[in-house]
Every structure is written in structure tokens, then in C-alpha cells.
Amino acid sequence: MHSSGSGSRADFWITDRDGPGAIVKEKGKGRGKGAMAETREEKRAPSIITVTELSKTYAGGFRALDSVNLDIRRGEIFALLGPNGAGKTTLISIICGIVNASSGQVRVGGHDIWREFRAARSLIGLVPQELTTDMFETVWATVNFSRGLFGKPADKALVERILRELSLWDKRNERIMALSGGMKRRVMIAKALSHEPAVLFLDEPTAGVDVSLRRDMWAMVRRLRENGVTIILTTHYIEEAEEMADRIGIIRGGRITLVEEKAALMEKLGKKQLTVQLQHPLADIPEALSDLPLTLSADGCALHYHFDSQGAQAGIAVLMRRLGEQGIEFVDLHSHQSSLEDIFVSLVQAREGAE
Amino acid sequence: MNFRAVSAIYRFEMARTFRTLLQSIASPVISTSLYFIVFGSAIGSRMVEIDGVSYGAFIVPGLIMLMLLTESISNASFGIFMPRYSGTIYEVLSAPVTATEVVIGYVGAAASKSVLLGLLVLITARLFVPFQIEHPFWMIAFLVLTAITFSLFGFIIGIWADGFEKLQIIPLMIVTPLAFLGGTFYSLSMLPPLWQTITLFNPVVYLVSGFRWSFYGQADVNIVLSFGMTLLFMLGCVAVIAWIFRTGYRLKS
């Protein structure tokens, strides 16, 4: 029913053994596509994080990461998606120095995170998933503590700017325990930004945050990116990745299974469906239309036409002409485009099917 | 050395102390003062002198040492346990700081508070009991060394403990009995010979004896041995902490 089919999707699964350079790897494609990929490689910004053959097996034997290779480009917003337990937080935790790796290498800004940990960690700000803050501290004290911890001299003006940016200035003298969950989340972001990191990890930043605050955070993330900060985002809200990310990475079972430009991913894997509401119900799809990717609704009152984004214009024109030739009259048309969420679900399901 | 990070941790911990003045400062000073009132002024006046020192004055070094041990352990263990318990340890682990800097920050703050408390108790004791300090330099040296050593020990407990019960069990079940049996309230010479020998396996004996020597010039064990044993215990704690950070024990999975 889908013109591109699951086989086409599988072309975009990359094995994480393809190495850090395999940002866009299109298996089974012809020379032309390969050349396009090379062009994108040439244009891309230099890497700020390089993860090579990174593996992690916990003491209990659980293999959380399995030979992960990943490049994060300087100045991009990278969204790491994956089901629960896929390895997102473990990957971030290793890069930030919170969890020990079993094997592999990670470089941040060209610095090995173990041998040159001071230089590497100085570049990183982390907003963890859990709301872990010093409940008895004031907002002002805890943000200044974070700045000092990263070896930066006190800078009241900068901390004030960060607090104002996050609408925390009025709360600066309040104890964190007195703040709402959303405000606590802002405090954690302020702490992460206090030492002016070049890379910001946001691990589920908007979990439990209301829509208004979520929009504020997205705006803030965009402003950070405009200022040259690289953002790595993990989220369950695929809407969030769709809204903000430049590139999408999908991790599953401890392996990076896909890394792709968001726009390209949606263009290539995004499906469209045109629904034609018929004036008179049909018992079956006419034989003359059987070559088209059509399905008939159960009540026979609607035809669903499935097509991919790339062939949209030509496909619809052909459908309209063919319906006219068959004397099929319709009263309404509406189309639906698959979201990143649909793509994510279909990719994960395709992978499960392949296994 | 990331001095700003050390300073940040140190100031954070000290701020916690001053935020809870009643619990952190007043409580140990009052409870130790009660010992001076009961054993020093009330019962002490009916006790015979020990080695030419009134009983009230005799117990001053031991009581200060008892308070110093328990407070050092409590401060340092709580200081590192709470970030682990609440999850805020992530920030320290992801910061550009070495294990040495983390330890200096946490242990330095715990030891500072203990020394401050020790001096406060010393001043308070003078209100109830007359005493002199023959070797003030060594008194301060023992005070600081003991505070650092047992803060290091407390730091280890704070990392080892995976709950509040474990946090309390070693100070309550081991350290306090050792302190009471370590010559705080009596001279070792008052014990039968066998118990004198057994008591020498108690590390607190060396602390109390050395500290008392700095006050009155009299000690149950040689002063060099006292100082050496304290140093040895401190080096042992440093070695354990070095292992903890090298392996990530209870800090990193």
C-alpha cells in the first residue's frame, strides 16, 4: 500500500559500526544518492562531540550501549529519540562523566573525556532528567555554586541575565523547595548554563512541564543555538524534536539505528494520505483504479490515497483525472501528513519486524 | 587545581552549617557542656585527682575528642551522603574537578566545623572547670589532625552508606563505644594489665592520650606513637578514598 514500503525505510537504518562519519548512510542507493550524501557531509559543521565504539555493560550484565558511534555537529540541535531503556540517559551520562564506560572513546571539543576531562567537562552543561536540586538552597546560591564548581569566577551580571531569561529573577532569594516543578526545572537549566557551556545536554527537559513553559523553553533553546551553543536533547515528546531539532538520532537496544537530518527524514519517510469523500458509496474499488495505492473505507464512502511526500503533486493530479474518467464524484478532500511521531513509531516497528 | 570549585564546595557546606546553627553548633556544645556539669563540677569534685590533675580538668581533652570524632564523622558523612541521596551528586561528578578537589572541599568544610566546635567546647569547658594548656601548638595540631582524619573517615561512611541507618550505624555502634573506652573518663593506668594491653588496640586511645598530653604534659602512650597512629589512620582513609574515586564505588555505575 505504501509506495516506498518498508524496504525503502530499511535503507535508512544505519549500523552503528558504520563509524562516526556515517551521519547519512544510504545503503543500497545508487551513485547519485551517494553523491548527495557526500555533499551534505562536506557542508556539515565540524564535530563537537565524537563518540566511537562506545559500550556500556552494567554490573548486573545489562548491556545499555553497544558499540555506539555518533558525531554531534557544532551549533546544531540534535534530538536523541528512543523508547524507555534504549540507552539515551546512559549515553549522556557517560559523555558527562557520571557513568563509567565499559569501552570506547568520547571526545568533546577534541578533548578525550577521560584523559582531558577538565577541558572536556568545562564545555558541557547538563540538565538531567530528574528534578535533583538542593531543596534548602536559594535559587541565587545554587546557580552561583554551579558556576564556581566549573571553575568560573563569580559573575553577578551573567547570573542575573540567566535568571531573568528563565523568569527566575523574582524567585532568586526563594528556597528551591518553595518552587513549583516547572520553576525547579528552570533552576536546573540555569545551573547548567551558569558556566556558559558550549554544549548543553537536555535530558527530557520538558517532562512534567506545562505547555506554556514548554514553549518558553523551546524559545530559549533556539536562542542558545543562535548564540552557538550545541544542544543535545532527549525527549519522549516527539513534537519537541519535530519543533526544534536539526537532526534526529534514534537509539534502540543500546544501538544508534538512525541518524538523519530532520527535514530529510520527514521528506523521505513522511507519508501523506489524501481522503476523498465520495458523493455515492462504492462497493469496491473499480478495476480501472486497481493500479493506484487506494483503499476504500468500510462504509464505502471514502477513498484513501497513500503517497509519499516526494510524489505528492503528480500523484494527486493523476488520481483526480482517473476519478473523473471513471465518473466518480466527490464532495470533499482532505490530506494528512505523517508526523515525526508516526515516522518514529513506524521505524521502531520496522526494526522490530526485521528482528 | 580548580580552587574555585574547592571554594564552591567548601562554602556550600559551611553555608549548610550556618543555616542550621542550632543543630550544628549549639546542640553539640550544650550536650558536651552537660558532661562538664555532671562529671566535672558535680561528681568530679568528689573524685580523686588523676596524675595530679583534678578529675574535672582530666576529662576535658577526652570529651573534646569525643565530640570532635562524632561531629567530624557526622558532618562529613552527611555532607557527601545527601547529594548522593538526593541525586545532586551528578553536578559534582560532571564538573571539571578531581577527586582530590572534591575531598578537600567536603572534608575541609567538615573538619573546619569540627575544629570550630572543638574550640567552642574548649571555651565553654573553661566556664565550668579550671585547666591549663601546656603545649598549645600541639593541642591545635592534634585538634586539626583528628578533625581531618575523622572527616575523611566520615566521607568514606557517607559514600558507603546506602541509607540513613547505615549512615548512623558506625558512629553509634563503633565510634562512640571506642571513644568511651578510649580513656576519655579514666587513665589507662587505672585498668588491670590485661585490659591495658587490649585497650591499646583502640585507635581512640592514641588520640585522647596525645590530646591530653598537649594539655597537661601527661600521656598514657608515647606522644610520638599517638601522633604516628593518628597519621597512619589518616593515610589509611586517604587510600580508601583514592580507591573509591578510582573505581567509582557507589559514585558511578
Automatic annotation (TrEMBL), chain B:
Predominant location category: membrane
Coiled-coil annotated residue ranges, if any: none
Protein's membrane topology: Multi-pass membrane protein
Transmembrane segments: 20-43, 55-82, 102-125, 137-161, 167-188, 200-217, 223-245
Subcellular localization(s) per the UniProt record: Cell inner membrane; Membrane
Pfam families found in the cross-reference section: ABC2_membrane (PF01061)
Keyword terms of this UniProt record: Cell membrane, Membrane, Transmembrane, Transmembrane helix, Transport
Domain ABC transmembrane type-2 residue range list: 19-248
Superkingdom of the organism of origin: Bacteria
InterPro entries for the chain: ABC-2_transport_permease, ABC2_TM, ABC2_TM_bact-type, ABC_2_transport
Similarity section: Belongs to the ABC-2 integral membrane protein family.
Protein name: Transport permease protein
